[in-house]
Structures are given as structure tokens and as C-alpha cells.
Inverse folding.
């Protein structure tokens, strides 16, 4: 009977592998998470081998039954991984052979570890991508729900982190919903290119056995088979593309986190995080720190590192498989684990966050963010925009000198700079009116934002 730590390739060697090399070479500590996918792939392969007459159908049936027993025992905890096994593939095959005898040794017919690993990784990442997509949709829905409550909550919009023009909190939130929608599309696209079945590529040159790759493809739910055996075993574009999409998603989460960090500060105080999603200080009793968002901001850099690992690992590899490619798993697994952790924490944090509309409105009232609307008022009266711009700039300077705002500056001061000003200027520059009149598609007017919310909900449905 085979043992889990017996090398499949031992026949060529007259000397035992150094224990340090075994440890260095082993991947079971991280690829063991793919045990379900490995067993599913082996079941489909065994089914095909039996149906094609490559092995006896009774052997195929025994292999499949044995594999299902191993899966059940691993999921229940009855079967524990052997840390001395080289990888999950060898562990499962050795366990199968110990249970059903020589029939288990026939499982690897017409298959290499190279195409087996490529298959398992694709299957695993397809499953994980579904979970990430679910979480991104949930976050977009959470944002849309929050936005619906604040289509008339006026706040300052910023450029260069300086107050620029009046918008609404809903409008600001929907900017992130659109970013996340693009993330959703990128992940879906990556999943489409991942959805090709490599088993049957063999080590690099396919196989002389009369296999049926399409049958295995259909049994495992892939869209199609890979078209070149060299590419089938050496392609890791799908892992790189997924990690790239996750990196962009993490960048968006980091930007959102940075804004929440600012909004939580006393300098802004636009929002307050629920106590369950904040921490205190060991020495300063007044502190309420937005640690969740700070960690997400930091973890974005970690995922960028995972992407760089994959790109650098692959950039100099000749065809076909090289052992360097074992390094793909820890990097892509870390990216997947990190984004799932960040999303699953960010969603309830955002849902429980308390918005402070009065503070947003107070901030919007300062900083002359209605100056553009004042200039537009004059343009609508017939002045060229550049002249209107200059007059409004003079009005802002006057307000600063007199320590007042455009809303409180006397009409006589307006008319001293332009006879076009009348009493209706105060309505034109009121913050609420400034927002309401920005009805252009994509703008901050409530009716426009409501359309944005409806569009997003339809897009993710």
C-alpha cells in the first residue's frame, strides 16, 4: 500500500530526498484548502476513464466511491491531513490507494500533477470568485440603501481636499457604488477567462490515451476546455487577473476607508461609527478609533504585494511547468482571503454607521462652495462666464474681509459690483437650490441620484 509521504516519482532515484528538501518542496500546508476541488476533479477524471474504457468500470466506480468516502471523512474531521505528505494531491491519492488497493493506483492514468494542479486551482478560484461577487453585491446594496436615506442631505464636495461645490451625501456614496460596479464587472470577466478546463493537458504534451476532455469539462461545470496542452499547464493568467481585479477593488475600499477616517475625526464629524466597529486607546480615554478602516487601508498594500509576487514569478518562466509556479497559491489565496475579510467587515460597519447631517450642512455653509452658482447666476443674466467668474471672486474676497458669507452679504454690496444682481440671487445661491438645480444625468440633484440608485440596483440584480 502507498503511504502519504511516499514519492510518486521515487522509482528514478536511488537515494532518499533530504528532509530539508522535503520540507522546502512541500505545499500541503497551503494547498490542502483545495481538497474538495481535488476530489471533484479526480471523480470526474475517474468517471471519464471508466466510460472511455481506459480502466474497468468497476475500478472507476470503486475509485469514485473511495474518493467520496475520503471527502466525507475530511469534512467531518475524521480524516486528518498528514503534514508529511508532499501536497494535497498526493495525500488524497495515497489515502485512496490505502482504502481500495490497486484500483486507486489507476486514478492517475492519463493525468499529470501539472494538469491536476491547474485544474484544482481553477476550480477553487471559481468558487472563491462567486463568494467575492456575492459580497461586492451586498456592499453595493448597502451603499444604495444608505444613499436612499440621504438624497437631500447636503454636504460639501471636495477637490484637493478643499471644499468645492455642494453635493449630497447620497451623491457621494453613489460614486463608490459605481466604482464597485466596475469591480463586479472585472471579477465577472476574470471568471469567464478562468472557466476553461485544463485536465487532459498531461505534463505538457497531452496523452496517448483516448480520453474525452469534453466529458470531464461538462462534469465539472466548465464553459470549455483549454486549447493547447502547453498553455493548459503553464497558464496562470487567470490567477493574476483575479488578483489584479481584487487589487483594484481593495484600492476602492481603501479610498472609501480614508474618507470614513476623515469623516470620523472631530475636524469633520460627518459620521460616527458604531461602537462594535471602533476601538479605544490604552491611555487616552476619549478616543474612538476607526481601526477597521485603517486596517483595510493597510491591507490594500498587502494585496498589491500578492499581485507583484505573481507577476514577477511568471515573467521569466519558459514553457511549460516550472516549480516556481508553486508560489502562485499562497499569493492568490492571500489576496482572496484578505478581500473577503475586508468586505465582510466593511459591510456591517457601513450599515451601522451613524450619519450626522447637521454637521455636513454646517460644513457646506462655510467655504463659499456656492461661488460657482453665483457666477452662473450672472451668466444666465447675459454676462460672459469669465466676467462673472471675476466678479464672484471679488465678492468672495469681500466676504472674507467682512467675515461673512455670500448668503449674508448685503444686496448693496452685490450691486456695487454688478447691476445684474437682484433679490433673487439669494435663492440662486442657497445650498439646497444649488443642489436641486444640478439635474443633469449623474449630478447631485435628488431626482438624478434616485435614477443612479435605480440603475445600480438593476445592474447588480
Amino acid at each position: 500500500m502507498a503511504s502519504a509521504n511516499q514519492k510518486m516519482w521515487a522509482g528514478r532515484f536511488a537515494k532518499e530526498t533530504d528532509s530539508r528538501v522535503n520540507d522546502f518542496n512541500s505545499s500541503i500546508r497551503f494547498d490542502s484548502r483545495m481538497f474538495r476541488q481535488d476530489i471533484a476533479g479526480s471523480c470526474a477524471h475517474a468517471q471519464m476513464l471508466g466510460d472511455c474504457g481506459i480502466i474497468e468500470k468497476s475500478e472507476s466506480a470503486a475509485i469514485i466511491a473511495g474518493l467520496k468516502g475520503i471527502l466525507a471523512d475530511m469534512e467531518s474531521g475524521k480524516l486528518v491531513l498528514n503534514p508529511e505528505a508532499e501536497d494535497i494531491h498526493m495525500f488524497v491519492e495515497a489515502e485512496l490507494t490505502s482504502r481500495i488497493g490497486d484500483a486507486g493506483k489507476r486514478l492517475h492514468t492519463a493525468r499529470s500533477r501539472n494538469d491536476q494542479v491547474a485544474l484544482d486551482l481553477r476550480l477553487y478560484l471559481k468558487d472563491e470568485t462567486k463568494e467575492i461577487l456575492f459580497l461586492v453585491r451586498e456592499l453595493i446594496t448597502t451603499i444604495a440603501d444608505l444613499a436612499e436615506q440621504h438624497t437631500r442631505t447636503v454636504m460639501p464636495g471636495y477637490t484637493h481636499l478643499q471644499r468645492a461645490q455642494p453635493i449630497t451625501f447620497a451623491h457621494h456614496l453613489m460614486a463608490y457604488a459605481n466604482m464597485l460596479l466596475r469591480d463586479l464587472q472585472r471579477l465577472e470577466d476574470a471568471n469567464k477567462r478562468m472557466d476553461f478546463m485544463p485536465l487532459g493537458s498531461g505534463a505538457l504534451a497531452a496523452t496517448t490515451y483516448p480520453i474525452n476532455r469534453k466529458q470531464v469539462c461538462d462534469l465539472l461545470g466548465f464553459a470549455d476546455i483549454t486549447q493547447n496542452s502547453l498553455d493548459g499547464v503553464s497558464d496562470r493568467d487567470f490567477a493574476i487577473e483575479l488578483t489584479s481585479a481584487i487589487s483594484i477593488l481593495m484600492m476602492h475600499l481603501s479610498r472609501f476607508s480614508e474618507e470614513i477616517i476623515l469623516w470620523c475625526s472631530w475636524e469633520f464629524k460627518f459620521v460616527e461609527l458604531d461602537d462594535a466597529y471602533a476601538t479605544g486607546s490604552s491611555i487616552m480615554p476619549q478616543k474612538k478609533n476607526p481601526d477597521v478602516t485603517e486596517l483595510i487601508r493597510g491591507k490594500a498594500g498587502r494585496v498589491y504585494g500578492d499581485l507583484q509576487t505573481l507577476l514577477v514569478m511568471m515573467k521569466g518562466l519558459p514553457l511549460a511547468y516550472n516549480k516556481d509556479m508553486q508560489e502562485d497559491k499562497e499569493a492568490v489565496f492571500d489576496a482572496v482571503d484578505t478581500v473577503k475579510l475586508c468586505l465582510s467587515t466593511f459591510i456591517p460597519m457601513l450599515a451601522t454607521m451613524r450619519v450626522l447631517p447637521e454637521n455636513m450642512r454646517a460644513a457646506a455653509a462655510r467655504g463659499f462652495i456656492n461661488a460657482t452658482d453665483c457666477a452662473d447666476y450672472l451668466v444666465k443674466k447675459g454676462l460672459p462666464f469669465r466676467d462673472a467668474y471675476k466678479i464672484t471672486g471679488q465678492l468672495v474676497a469681500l466676504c472674507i474681509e467682512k467675515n461673512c458669507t455670500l448668503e449674508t452679504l448685503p444686496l448693496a454690496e452685490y450691486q456695487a459690483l454688478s447691476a445684474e444682481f437682484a433679490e433673487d440671487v439669494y435663492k440662486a445661491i442657497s445650498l439646497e437650490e444649488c443642489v436641486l438645480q444640478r439635474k443633469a444625468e449623474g449630478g447631485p440633484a435628488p431626482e438624478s441620484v434616485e435614477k443612479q440608485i435605480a440603475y445600480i440596483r438593476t445592474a447588480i440584480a
Summary: The CA atoms of residues 125 and 143 lie 27 Å apart.
